[in-house]
Design a protein that fits this description.
Among the domains are: about 120 residues, Malic enzyme, N-terminal domain (Rossmann fold, 3-Layer(aba) Sandwich); about 80 residues, no CATH class. It has 17 helices and 10 strands. Helix 15 runs antiparallel to helix 17. The radius of gyration is 22 Å and the shape is globular.
């Protein structure tokens, strides 16, 4: 829990002050080599720089030895789906991309360039990223609206030989899946038999349901603004159609009747208490709309005292936070120079996160969050972002999966 909740005006003032002072923005360039003498200047630039230039010209793989490519990720957006703010444009998305750079560096010591691209078409965006890709060891796509985000990621994965990862899709999906596996275990359920309702059919919803299917989920009801995605419904795009099912259920309320799991990646206050009451015993609710969840947490607990609840907020237990995933997933991929981040690597991250939660939490983590204890159970189904063990558990699992599936250049 946070020590103090700021009002909206106080938060706005604090945030603007944070981003403006003492210098504008949140990132800067740091030098990794000395350049204090004439000799060092000659090595850093001309004439000394010619030696690595020639080495890379002869063997492009030498770039990993002589440049920062191997530890450099591009965080790229078109600004079309920034947080909950919508299509604010590429430039307005820059504070978020800088924030992502801070998290990469803070949690996994990965360097980042944030890149904001004005592109009206999928083709233009893909061409831009492809053209600048030689600079980087990996590409993190961010805040790109569906369905174009699916098309962009697919095209770049096919054309590039470095990891391409859309965090709004896969990062969210990985953290959801890790928490859900633990919640299912606590409630005595098997994922293959669980009745799962997903409210929200954008990037996060589609990717999360794909991940759950890969883990064995079979009974998924995908719900969008028009209701349940069912066989025969008109105007369903190909991504939603993956989850179309034969069913007489049409509304969210219909889908929720008897459900074991609710996953919300939609908007505030869409899950009504009446719907929650119709869920099965020990319901699992991931109300992830942020800052206002699909149901108020206090109301949810008051309605069902047997609930296992997760949100996207830091001031409640079980925060589904992407920072648990992307820095460490990229760290693992970069460590073995993986050419992609495949499904097996993502599942490895899911299982590592789920397993870490069951390990005794270090006292430093307990103290950092101001609680008496952190033990695997209803209020602790996902690790905490400042758990230092994440740096070992997740990258190692991801790297091993990369090696096992043959996409690692280094072993």
């Amino acid at each position: 829990m946070t020590d103090k909740k700021l009002s909206a005006d106080e938060l706005k003032k604090a945030a603007l002050n944070y981003h403006a002072h003492p210098v504008a923005g949140k990132t800067a360039t740091a030098l990794t080599k000395p350049c204090d003498t004439q000799e060092e200047l000659s090595l850093a630039y001309t004439p000394g720089v010619a030696a690595p230039v020639r080495a890379i010209a002869d063997d492009p793989e030498a770039a990993y030895q002589y440049t920062n490519k191997g530890n450099l990720v591009a965080v790229i957006t078109d600004g079309s789906a920034v947080l909950g703010l919508g299509n604010v444009g590429a430039l307005a998305g820059k504070p978020v991309m800088e924030g992502k750079a801070v998290l990469f560096k803070k949690f996994a010591n990965i360097d980042v360039m944030d890149i904001e691209v004005d592109a009206d078409s999928v083709e233009d965006f893909v061409k831009t990223v492809k053209n600048i890709s030689p600079t980087f060891g990996g590409i993190n796509l961010e805040d790109i609206a569906a369905p174009r985000c699916f098309e962009i990621e697919k095209a770049l994965i096919e054309e590039l030989n470095i990891p391409v990862f859309h965090d709004d899709q896969h990062g969210t999906a990985i953290i959801i899946a890790a928490g859900l596996l633990n919640a299912l275990e606590i409630s005595g359920r098997e994922i293959e038999k669980a009745h799962i309702v997903c409210l929200g059919a954008g990037a996060a919803g589609i990717a999360a349901m794909r991940m759950l299917k890969s883990l064995g989920a079979r009974k998924i009801y995908l719900v969008d603004r028009k209701g349940v995605v069912y066989n025969g419904r008109e105007e369903v795009n190909k991504y939603k159609h993956e989850f179309s099912r034969e069913s007489s259920r049409r509304t969210l309320a219909d889908a929720m009747n008897g459900a074991d799991v609710f996953i919300g990646v939609s908007g505030p206050n869409l899950l009504k208490p009446e719907m929650l009451k119709t869920m099965a015993a020990n319901p699992i609710v991931f109300a992830l709309s942020n800052p206002d969840p699909e149901i108020n947490p206090e109301l949810a607990i008051k309605t069902r005292d047997d609930i296992i609840l997760a949100t996207g907020r830091s001031d409640y237990p079980n925060q589904v936070n992407n920072v648990l995933g992307f820095p460490f997933i990229f760290r693992g991929a970069l460590n073995v120079r993986a050419t992609c981040i495949n499904t097996e690597m993502q599942i490895a991250a899911v299982k590592a996160l789920a397993a870490l939660t069951k390990e005794p939490a270090p006292q430093s983590v307990v103290d950092a969050y101001g609680v008496d204890k952190l033990e695997f159970g209803k209020d602790y189904i996902i690790p905490k972002p400042f758990d230092p063990r994440l740096q070992d558990f997740v990258p190692k699992a991801v790297a091993e999966a990369a090696v096992d599936t043959g996409v690692a250049k280094d072993r």
